[in-house]
Amino acid sequence: MPISENAKAVLERRYLARDEQGNPTETVDGLFRRVANAIAEGDRHFDPKADVVATARTFYEMMTNLDFLPNSPTLMNAGRPLGQLSACFVLPVADSMEDIFDAIKNAALIHKSGGGTGFSFSRLRPNGSTVNSTGGVASGPISFMKVFNAATEAVKQGGTRRGANMGILRVDHPDIMSFITCKNDTSEITNFNISVGITEAFMEAVGKNQPYDLVNPATGQVTGQLNAREVFDTIVQSAWQTGEPGIIFLDRLNRDNVVPSQGEIESTNPCGEQPLLPYESCNLGSINLVNHLTRTVAGWVLDRAKLERTIRNAVHFLDNVIEVNQYPLPEIDQMTRSTRKIGLGVMGFADMLLYMGVPYNSEEGVALAGEIMDTINTIGHQASQELAESRGPFPLFGESIYKDDKPLRNATVTTIAPTGTLSIIAGVSSGVEPVFAYAYIRNVMDNTHLIETNQILKDRLVEAGIYSEELMRKIVEQGSLAHVDGIPEDIKRVFVCAHDVSPIWHVKMQAAFQAYTDNAVSKTVNFPNSATREEVAEVYRMAFTLGCKGTTIYRDGSRNEQVLNIGKVNDGKQAPAPAGRVCEECQIPQESYGHIQPRPRPAVTTGFTEKVRIGCGNLYITVNYDENGICEVFTNTGRAGGCPSQSEATARLVSVGIRSGMDPKEIIQQLKGSRCPSCLRQAGVPVTSCPDAIAKALEKVLKVSQNGGHETAPAPIAPTAPAAAPIPRPGMTPAEAKLAKFCPECGARLEHEGGCVTCRDCGYSKCG
Predict the structure, then answer these.
(1) Which of 152, 189, 275, 290 could connect to 253 by a Cys-Cys bridge, CB 3.0–4.6 Å?
(2) Contact (CB, 8 A) for 150 and 121
(3) How many CB atoms lie within 10 A of CB 528?
């Protein structure tokens, strides 16, 4: 099985079945056999005599050879009791309190099952409008988005992560300006991606610098007008500042709505690549293009025969997913089976170009993208038609836009999804994105920092006889090969990274894939920090002109966190601002309000990560330092435990405080000894709370950093001496004493009442 050690680590950490104690109960090979066998069982639904063993073998080989991988929920849940295999869902949000909270409840059930959700809030009446039933005043979509966000925060998926959401609002909704800027404070609505639903009428008004109408969805009445160009500029400004909102083109989505009789498409999944009707689900998988290359005398070429086989097997696989899936809601079960939409996409496209010697930012690269996706879409539809011959078309085929054509098993066949984790498993570039960087710092799980090098580049440099560690360091510092001396121009021309690719080529590439994709294309236009607002505006205009269904941008450094970091390695020092200096980005004088600006986070740091047992699981604490001392703290909760938001907030504030010049000893003094009942109630826990654990980790690393970082890793946080056993209350029998539970705060006997545990002596309650 051609799986790297890194891929194995990811699979073991996130995908393998585990027992109640969190210990893996299967191997990586066992995972793929489990998935293959479970999905192959779908054949029996149509033919009791089907050779399920042969089908399972085909699926197993396709996955273990890394030719194709399904979306993560399928890998996690196929053949397991949960059985929920879909990545994401779209839920309706109607304009009534009952419907709103039904949607919240349904979203919670979906998040619990491991899925993401998409919502359109466009049907909710605007803030300040009258509620006839009560005579009250509506609070508007933004306030309810915050309720959805809070509910998402409360529901953990498998004890490891929060659910993801997409929130969409039409550009002609009266609250659109509030929506556009609702995430400018990046601490708000943190569990949502947001996109503006843009109409063609709006884009026409933008081009003409004209006003357009705002419409109250509850009454259908025009409530006012806004200047389209000013609204567009606000979208651009917010996206430049924070990466959000994205945009989707609603009219374009609905021209491709396969079953318009079922209503309009108003929303997508959280990443935007799957437009869905209410209660539909996305069932996705991706073909690894790198594995479909073959080397000839003339160089690397696409093995079209193998690609065709994989496409047909993948369509078969994904149709079976729909059949064996255990959906979280009966409405989703019914709607998904009615349209049977699947989304077959690709990963490793950028790596394929590198092997073939084709620059991403070239007409040759764009043409190759269209050619490959045309093949996948054409063969995919043929495979769906063949399945329809034996299994029947999707039930709503007679109402579909295809009703006069050859029957299809699936209303849609192709989608270009992001493949973050899947591409790590396969060891290739993500989706259709260019390579982000060829040597970079990755913030991996547990917030540890690693410098990684693209293997294709490394091999090419070795082949050219110029590879060295010093050269790779220069690439890390520059973030690109473009301006690194000593690298031949022919290598620089092919090995372009995301920031080398101008906006026009990003959008051209997205449009090339979109032309042959049923659904949409998940694509992020990555900008350097120096990008201008006009460059962002240009991307949005081009995406509309070239036929994309939406797009998202991200300007490097515009958010506090990102998984991948590139750029010059610096010493972390920042010269004091001259008197009267004005910030280039926000135009606020730097000396105003007595602000203390934290020094920038250095690009390269040294540090330690420690796993600490806490009362409700494990807490992973990473403390990093540079030559100036401690500069940042990260926390991550292990499986099934902790208070991740509080721990993360504490770590962030500590990091900002230290980089702003606060004495780490003062911070340690404030945090050390903080008490949490979850830690105190269990014997052998070496800390009294998560903040106490952070303080103790800081204390140890502070000593190392002050000694120039020359010491070995500090010793683990040692368990404190076990507390003396509480003295049983007088009158208790030995049996009662043995069974009794004692208060972690005062040692008194606990009482069970109202489904909770309470101490009558000090008022401690397990329920808070």
Answers:
(1) 275
(2) no
(3) 16
Q: Which domains does the chain have, with CATH numbers?
A: 5-84+272-426 (3.20.70.20), 88-268 (3.20.70.20), 606-706 (3.30.390), 728-768 (no CATH)
CA distance 561 to 114: 23
Classify residue 212 as exposed, middle or buried by CB count within 10 Å of its CB (0-12, 13-18, 19+). buried
The span from the CA of 757 to the CA of 768, in Å, is 10
Say which residue, 476 or 341, is predicted with more confidence.
341
Q: What are phi and psi of 525, to 5 degrees?
A: -85, 110
Other C-beta atoms within 10 Å of 766: how many?
A: 17
Q: For residues 205 and 221, what is the distance between their CA atoms, to the nearest angstrom?
A: 20
- Distance of CA 365 to CAs 231, 361, 734, Å? 34, 7, 79
Distance CA 679, CA 676 (A): 6
Instruction: List active site positions.
Output: 269, 271, 273
From 274-288, 298-312, 368-382, 520-534, the region with the lowest mean pLDDT:
520-534
Q: Are 480 and 437 in contact (CB under 8 A)?
A: yes
Q: Which amino acid is at 240?
A: W
pLDDT digits (tens, 9 = 90+) for 482-519: 989 999 999 999 999 988 999 899 999 999 999 999 99
Identify any residues that bridge with 439 across adjacent strands, giving them in sequence order. Answer: 453
Tens-digit pLDDT profile for residues 176-204: 999 999 998 877 888 899 999 999 999 99
Beta carbons of 442 and 452 less than 8 angstroms apart:
yes
C-alpha count within 13 angstroms, C-beta hemisphere, residue 664: 25
The string of pLDDT tens digits covering residues 13-34 is 889 998 887 788 999 999 999 9
Place of tokens 């943190």: 190
Which amino acid, one-letter code, is at 55?
Answer: T
Q: Which two tokens stand for residue 662?
A: 């606060």
Tell me the pLDDT of the chain averaged across its residues.
Answer: 84
Tell me the CA distances in angstroms from 43 to 52, 72, 521, one per residue in order.
Answer: 7, 22, 30
State the Cα–Cα distance between residues 87 and 157, nearest whole angstrom: 12
Quote the pLDDT of residue 584.
40
Confidence of residue 658 (pLDDT cuts 50, 70, 90): confident
